[in-house]
Amino acid sequence: NWLEKALRDAIRDHQLTLHYQIQVDAEDRPIGAEALLRWFHPERGAIPPDAFIPLAEETGLIEPIGRWVLATACGQIAAWSRQDAMRGLTLAVNISARQFESDSFVDDILSEIRRTGAPADKLKLEVTESLAIGDVQSSSRKLHTLRDNGFSISLDDFGTGNSSLNYLTKLPLTQLKIDKSFVDELPASHRDAMVAQTIINMGRGLGLDVIAEGVETAAQRDFLVAQGCYSFQGYLFGKPVPVGEFEAQVRAAL
Ligand code: G
Ligand code: G
Ligand code: MN
Ligand code: NA
Q1: Contact at 8 Å (CB) between 36 and 49?
Q2: Where would one find the signal peptide in this protein (predicted)?
Q3: Does residue 46 sit in helix, strand or coil?
Q4: Which of 180, 224, 231, 239 to mutate to test ligand 2, by most ligand atoms within 8 A of the CB atom?
Q5: Which CATH architecture has domain 63-238?
């Protein structure tokens, strides 16, 4: 398989990078970023994550890739903690189910935090509903350990998987991320408006922070604010960009 071999080389030859997509509050002030993996192949150019993450999960390559992502993210948080403009920001990292299931997952994160000196309260782990399918109890235990160490846990793609409500009450989450599919047709679609409103009310009722992703228009943002959602990510505020560009966006917003 060409892709599998190329992906092994990509890890070894440092072809992977992280891009950063800004997250803002209701006053457009930067509150953080989501780290998004990018692969630039020397001959084939940019290969999108949707084209290689599923394969990386199947082959287990997601484990070394995920460790690289976490190490890089922790290094970035540590660097930001030394800059006035950046030190308040959180950084969200996508964690795939297979990576989460690894026995060394929690220890790997803790050792990166120690190695880099990154403040744990700035690292947010984005997990999906599929993570708990295997064993809710053991997933919950791992997440509790992470929470005890100061990390935040965001439930990504909320509403698109199975048994969402079950997980909501059993997992120690700090944030719900409203999936882009529920944001796209706002505010015109009455159905999507009702779903968004319900997710926001439920999240707030459970004491969770609620963030909407895929926000592309001011009308979407204004509708979400009116429903009580005060954190946003989407092209309206910025696309995923290299770290230097992201830092410039944050400084420009001060
Ligand atoms: O920019 P976008 O095309 O970045 O991302 C596409 C998909 O790839 C999203 O579902 C996102 O969660 C996933 N993704 C992006 N970066 C990472 C990563 O570092 N690890 C994992 N597991 N998934 C990622
Ligand atoms: O699955 P996850 O939520 O981790 O993936 C985030 C994905 O959404 C990334 O591919 C990111 O590039 C994409 N994305 C973020 N904001 C927007 C947006 O406003 N519009 C579109 N079309 N995609 C977005
Ligand atoms: Mn995500
Ligand atoms: Na999502």
Answers
A1: yes
A2: none
A3: strand
A4: 180
A5: Alpha-Beta Barrel (3.20)
In ligand 2, which atom is closest to the CA atom of 179? 3
Q: What is the pLDDT of residue 167?
A: 82
Note whether ipTM > 0.90 here: yes
Strands in the chain per DSSP E: 16-25, 30-41, 45-47, 90-94, 123-127, 152-158, 175-178, 209-212, 231-233
Asked if the bond preceding 187 is cis, omega within 30° of 0, the reply is yes
- 3-class secondary-structure state, position 14: coil
Contact 221, 215 (CB under 8 A): yes
Three-state secondary-structure class, residue 15: coil
Cα distance between residue 91 and residue 33, in whole Å:
5
Q: 21 in the Ramachandran plot: left (φ > 0), alpha (ψ -120 to 50) or beta?
A: beta
106-111 long-range contacts, Cβ below 8 Å, gap at least 24?
Answer: 106/142, 106/145, 106/146, 108/67, 108/70, 109/70, 109/74, 109/146, 109/151, 110/149
User: Which segments of the chain have a pLDDT < 50?
Assistant: none
User: pLDDT for 149-178, tens place per residue?
Assistant: 999 999 998 888 765 688 888 899 999 999
Does residue 154's CB lie within 6 angstroms of at least one atom of ligand 1?
no
Residue type, 247: E
pLDDT value of residue 122: 98
Tokens of 81: 């903690």
Asked if residues 179 and 158 have their Cβ atoms less than 8 Å apart, the reply is: yes
